[in-house]
Amino acid sequence: MSDRYPGGLIRKTPPTITPPVDGEGGSASGIWTMDQVAYYIKEGTWPQKVFSRELYAWGSNTYGQLGLDDSAITRSSPVQIGSDTNWKVLQASSSDALAIKTDGTLWAWGRNFYGQAGLNHTVQTSSPTQVGALTNWSKLATSAGSVTSTFAIKTDGTLWACGINSSGQLGQNDVIQRSSPVQIGSDTDWYAVAGTGSGNVFLKTDGTMWACGLNSNGHLAQNDTINRSSPVQVGADTDWQSIVGSAFHAIKTDGTLWAWGQNSSGQHGTNSTINTSSPVQVGVLTNWSKLGPVNNNLFAIKTDGTLWACGKNAQGCLGVGDKINYSSPVQIGADTDWYSTASNESTLAVKTNGTLWSWGDGKDGGLGQNNLVYTSSPVQVGSETNWGEVAFGNDWGMASTKG
Length: 403
What we know:
The protein folds into two domains: 1-50, no CATH class; 53-401, Regulator of chromosome condensation 1/beta-lactamase-inhibitor protein II (Methylamine Dehydrogenase, Chain H, 7 Propeller), CATH 2.130.10. By secondary structure, it is mainly β. It starts with a strand and ends with a strand. The chain has one helix spanning 34-43; strands spanning 2-5, 8-11, 16-18, 27-29, 55-59, 75-80, 87-92, 96-101, 106-110, 125-130, 137-142, 149-154, 159-163, 178-183, 190-195, 199-204, 209-213, 228-233, 240-244, 248-252, 257-261, 276-281, 288-291, 297-302, 307-311, 326-331, 338-344, 346-351, 356-360, 375-380, 387-392, 396-401.
């Protein structure tokens, strides 16, 4: 028996490979040549290291949002949530937290006043609690503000929602609140979601954009201010790549940056403070790469690793050394190694070297700096170099490790 593999002919018993899942794990057996290993690495199917992802939180804890099995006790530096080491996807709203583990399970904790935790009740929860028993959750989004709904995408591409629904933001063609996840339509090609808590925008794998919910500030990009209680397509473009709210921003596949909705603080980055009800391009650059979850501002990373921001800056959350609002993107320092950000009045960011940074209002220890000090420029949180994902609520934050 023989078979042909990349790099040569393998006789008798061919080597076997189990590809990694989401870039981690997998296995290989048998005898492999270096050429074969190089081929599968290039294809992304060679086994990869399984990372240990602990979860930490700090700051305000009025509703148990730190997940430490208590409430009202604030922490001014990161404290580990439990002992699990398989946290993967993080999301935070004003006083709620959600996370997906590497096994595909969904967990929630915090205020839960509107049933946004998806636990079939509206009771405050101060430690991570599993949402149902499913193991196929993939992506998350929740609102940055205090009016909260939650959205999640499964590995099968279906879209689910729960929480407040006063403006039809759950996409159910009604305004009935839900405390357990309900599916939005029957489509199986949803890719990403961003929300304000009242108006929400979604992307499909075909690059189209869809929206539903409150539209008073043009959040739904329909060129009007009429609410929708089920998803409607935004224009006809098929090259949308990523999105964030609450003033909506999106990056297209050509690297251009776009904005729409509320713009009272100049958060669009278009050198104005005028709301827009359809997408407008931010400048003319084509090297925008990543967007961070925000509230009343914009944080974006370029392909060169530089970090830029604009919008509301009353607490120094833009990180540019002052408290002045900016209506066009300004660069934060001169570093070229920013990896991800999250902001809600104050800001968290991770660099490619795994260091964690924060700036803005230090109220309740929300910056994780072991103090209550305000800072308008990035300051490193501790000395660790294995931070991964970050999320920011209202004066509290959380981050997972990756090491």
